[in-house]
Amino acid sequence: MSSIRRILALVVSISLVFALTACSGKKDGASSDAGKLEQIKQSGKLVLGTSADYPPFEFHKEINGKDEIVGFDIEIAKAIAAELGVELEIKDMKFDGLLAALNTGKVDIVIAGMNPTEDRKKAVDFSDIYYREVQSVVVRAESVDLIKTLDDLKGKKVAVQKGTTMEAMAQQHMPESEIKGLGRVTDVVLELKNSKVEAVVMEKPVAKAYVLANPELKLTEIELSPEDTGFAVAVKKGNEDLVTKTNEILKSLIDQGKIDEFVADANKLMEE
Ligand code: ARG
Hints:
Elements: H1 2-31, H2 36-43, E1 45-50, E2 53-54, E3 58-63, E4 66-70, H3 72-84, E5 87-92, H4 98-103, E6 109-110, H5 118-123, E7 124-131, E8 135-140, E9 157-161, H6 165-173, E10 178-182, H7 185-193, E11 199-203, H8 204-213, E12 217-224, E13 231-236, H9 240-255, H10 258-271
Parallel strand pairs: 1-5, 1-6, 9-10, 9-11
Antiparallel strand pairs: 2-3, 3-4, 7-13, 8-11, 8-12
The chain binds arginine.
C-alpha cells in the first residue's frame, strides 16, 4: 500500500513539474508577442496592410460617392475582423513596404495577393495558401501578334511591380530583356500605355482586370508559373495565435465555397 502511495506521490510530483514548466513556457512565449489575438481584441480593430492596386484582390472603388478599398482579399480580412469581433482598418501602401509595416507593428496583418516565398518566410510568418495563380504578359493591342513567346521580348523593356514575384520571375526568365520595377501596378500599366515599355508581367486575374479597363491593352498567350505559387496571409513572426485563427477562418471560407464567391463578387464590382 505504501509503495502505491509512493508511486502516486511520484506521479503527482512529476505532473506538477510538467505543469509548471508548461506554464513557464507559455509565459516566455507571451513576452514575444503571443497573445496577439488578445491585443487586437482589446484595441477593437484589426489593421490590414495591403497594396490596393490589384483588382480583383484589392482595389479602389467609388461606392455611393465614397472611395472604398474592396476586393477578394478585403473580404477575407473582413471575415477575420468579424470573427474577432473588431473593426477593420485598411492601410494602403506600396507592395514593397508591406513586410516592414508588419514588423514595425504599423499593421497587424498583410493580405495583398502575397506569395509566401522562402525569402519572405525569413522575415514574417504565413498562413496556409488560399489562392493559386499564374503570371501573364500584357502588351499594347497593336503588338499582340508580334509578341508570342518570351524570346520576342529579348532586348525590349518590360515593367513589373517592384519587390514582387513577377519581378523575380522576369529577371530569371527574361535575362535579355530590360526589367523595370515600379512601386504601383497602376504605374506599371501607365508605362505600357505610354509606350515606355513593350510588355508588363502581371498575375492573370489582375492582368484580365486591367485589360478589361484598358481596351488598348491585350493579354498575350505567354504564361509563367512561379514555383512557390499561391497567396497567403502574412503576420509578424511569432504571432502564432493569429496564424492559427486565420487558418481556421480560411479553411471554413474555402469549405463553404466563399472564396469562389468572393472572386466572383470582386469581378462583378470591377465591371460595374
Ligand atoms: N503575388 C505577387 C507577390 O507575392 C504580387 C503581389 C502584388 N500584390 C499587390 N497587392 N500589388 O509578389
